[in-house]
Amino acid sequence: MKKNMSMDISNISYENLKTQIGELLKKGREQAGRAINTILVQTYWQIGRYIIEFEQKGKEKAGYGEELLKNLSKDLTLTYGKGFSRSNLTYMRKIFLAFPKSETLSHKLSWSHYFEILKADTDLELKFYTKQCELENWSVRELRRQMKSMLFHRLALSKDKEGILNLSNRGIDIDQPADIIKDPYVLEFLSIPQEHQYLEGELEDKLIQNLQKFLLELGKGFAFIGRQYKISIGNRHFFVDLVFYHRILKCFVLIDLKRGEIEHNDIGKMNLYLNYFRKEEFTEGDNEPIGIVLGAYKDQILVEYATDSITNQLFVSKYQLYLPDKNMLADELEKLLGENE
Question: Hey, what CATH topology would domain 185-323 get?
């Protein structure tokens, strides 16, 4: 009896011990990693400060400033090793200029995050990506993708000046269905050539194959439920292309994909799906479902007439298979900000 009890204690207690040690090590390593990142960012910020103060004290010309970074890079690398390329020193200088108060630096972001964020063209854009990285815990790779896809500009162009400033200072606030909508959605990660004559089923297949990237494009809070979700009404069957659940808004999100231009009957069909979900799939705690008809083209006037008097949360958006034109979006945003002054 004693022997068996000893074996039980050994098996259970030993496994618990290993688990506890493992969790402690994981937590400790994460904390150590965050501490190292914080110290590195603070150190680079301080180096940037020293460089700016040296320049201001000497009142040197910009041309000499470039020579200064070149000489510093050479001398610091010889003395301290890697990490002091002219590019890195340029961004150390930039981080001090962008965040003149060190307490405004985020402890959640690494130097690699800041290196990417500092490539933003405007202060509004820089603030947005800093805040959004914190809110959504983007990896550096995810951050690069969102900046390339011009996420800030795509969201800002649907807002007034006050909305743009709020977006920049607070990131994406998800309080209502319209807050999760983008127009356009950028699906360049599917690698479908622009001229390729693809079918809707092929588009859906590729989105499922690249679900993680699609969820990143959709934004925070989306959980995948299923594809070709069957709806039975009487003896007829319908299929919703993609169904998600939004954890923040606490509602189903239905997406219907269209290869070409969105027609009025596509909007009517989505309205049917939403009515069904509201009556048949609704459970306690759920909010009204959201429908997104997503097509390559849309006629804005047709959309306005087709959605008029629809009480459901139904949105019509475009998608594109290539990255947006950065200069065009920047010009549109600058024009919008100018009009709202």
Answer: Trna Endonuclease; Chain: A, domain 1 (3.40.1350)
Of residues 155, 87, 73, the one with CA closest to residue 118: 87
Which residues are CB-contacts of 200 (< 8 A; sequence separation ≥ 6)? 241, 257, 258, 259
Specify whether the CB–CB gap between 256 and 280 falls below 8 A: no
Number of Cβ within 10 Å of residue 74's Cβ equals: 12
Confidence of residue 198 (pLDDT cuts 50, 70, 90): confident
pLDDT of residue 5: 47
Q: What is the pTM of this model?
A: 0.83
Q: Return the axis-axis angle of helices 264-276 and 300-307, rounded to nearest 10°.
A: 40
Helix residue spans in the chain (DSSP H)? 2-58, 62-80, 86-98, 111-117, 123-136, 140-148, 151-156, 161-170, 200-209, 211-218, 264-276, 300-307, 326-339
Q: Where are the domains of the chain?
A: 1-106, 120-175+326-341, 185-323
pLDDT digits (tens, 9 = 90+) for 227-271: 999 999 989 999 999 999 999 999 999 999 999 899 999 999 999
How many other CB atoms are there within 10 angstroms of residue 21's CB atom?
10
For residues 210 and 197, give the distance between their C-alpha atoms in angstroms, rounded to a whole number.
Answer: 20
Tens-place pLDDT, residues 89-133: 999 999 999 999 999 999 899 999 999 999 999 999 999 999 999
- Compute, in degrees rounded to 10, the torsion defined by CA atoms 21, 22, 26, 32: 40
Distance CA 254, CA 244 (A): 6
